[in-house]
Amino acid sequence: MGLMDGKRGLVVGIANDHSYAYFLAESLLAQGAECLFTHLPGDKMKRRVAKALSQLGQDDPWLESMDASSDEDLDRVFNKIGEDFGKMDFLVHSIAYADKEWLSVGNFTKTPRAAYCQALDISAYTYLAMANRSVPLMSDGGSMLAMSYYGSVKAVPGYNVMGVAKAALESTSRYLAYELGPKNIRVNTISGGPLRTMSALAVGGLTEIMDWTRKKSPLGRNVTGKDVGDAAVFLLSDLSSGITGQNIYVDCGYSAMGI
Ligand SMILES: NC(=O)c1ccc[n+]([C@@H]2O[C@H](COP(=O)([O-])OP(=O)(O)OC[C@H]3O[C@@H](n4cnc5c(N)ncnc54)[C@H](O)[C@@H]3O)[C@@H](O)[C@H]2O)c1
Fold first, then answer.
1. What is the phi/psi pair of residue 173, to 5°?
2. What is the number of the ligand 1 atom nearest to the C-alpha of 123?
3. C-alpha 175: how far from its chain's center?
4. Measured in angstroms, how far is the CA atom of residue 68 from the centroid of ligand 1?
5. pLDDT for 198-244, tens place per residue?
6. Is 64 helix (H, G, I), strand (E, B) or coil?
């Protein structure tokens, strides 16, 4: 018996076997979930994601190309889920993007308008865009989850415009929770600790952030993908039936510390 038996959902954000979304999928699959996946457009991206999925035992996955900044791509993918399955129960949003050039320490003030808007579009607006398209498919209720980071509420040197985008993401999540609550659709975010992924490597000073977090965290270590994947299962399963509009820290306690 798994916590996710009988539940189907879309997991967006696997780039490789280091991605947060990879670990979320691993935990979801271990609890009996049926997972559908997307990859960024292009054969190389498809091959990379398919390779990671095969490590999860998904040799014949439901896998569609999707650039989340394209409304046409979003429509195509969510329409196809409707055609192929009729309904779904959960959504995982684990994507973010900001031009690396503006993610170095001391470089926030110079962020150009286009880079700022692109970061907010891909990292925050897309949660709303996916949620909106998920609603008709969540006819029996559902649960949605997006990945955030502490840089949304505190200034983390180097995180820069991505911190602004995460603040927007967390706020978007609360407004979605308010509007979708009456349909029994729950909407939450997890604020995960730093994990060495492809996107994280674009943030200036990642090694310092990870060293500092490990030293200051009550648990005395950095998070693992499984720490976050298992918390995601809780939020996407019926065990969390009364939780919505929340941002849950899975960060070994780092955010609880004053000094
Ligand atoms: N790694 C960390 O330290 C950390 C900490 C807290 C939160 N997060 C968040 O976790 C999420 C996943 O990031 P990750 O660290 O696993 O890195 P990752 O590089 O493995 O994943 C990022 C994903 O975003 C996808 N993406 C980027 N632009 C896209 C677009 N236009 N359309 C569709 N997909 C797009 C990429 O393809 C990739 O799969 C992000 O929201 C990130 O901000 C990461």
1. -60, -40
2. 41
3. 17
4. 12
5. 999 988 889 999 999 999 999 999 999 999 999 999 999 999 999 99
6. strand
* Number of the ligand 1 atom closest to the C-alpha atom of 193: 5
218 CA to centre of ligand 1 in angstroms: 26
Beta bridge partners of residue 190, listed in sequence order: 147, 248
- Structural tokens at position 111: 């962020």
Cα separation, 256 vs 20, whole angstroms = 22
Give the neighbor-by-neighbor strand order of the sheet with 185-192.
63-65, 34-39, 8-12, 90-93, 142-148, 185-192, 247-250
SS3 189: strand
**C-alpha span between 57 and 26 (Å, rounded):** 9
- Torsion (CA) 104, 106, 109, 110 in degrees, nearest 10: -50
Count Cα atoms within 13 angstroms, Cβ side, for 133. 22
pLDDT, tens digit, 9 for 90 and up, residues 9-26: 999 999 999 999 999 999
Q: Which domains does the chain possess?
A: 8-251 (3.40.50.720)
Show the ligand 1 pocket: residues with CB < 6 angstroms: 13-15, 18-21, 40, 66-69, 94-97, 122, 147-149, 192, 194-195, 197-200
Return the residue matching tokens 């060495």. 196
Active-site annotation holder among 20, 159, 249, 254: 159
pLDDT tens sequence across 84-115: 999 999 999 999 999 999 999 999 999 999 99
CA distance 85 to 99: 36
**45's torsion region: left (phi>0), alpha (psi -120 to 50) or beta?**
alpha
| R_g of the chain computed on alpha carbons | 17
CA atoms within 13 A on the CB side of 239: 13
Rounded CA gap, 162 and 116, in Å?
9
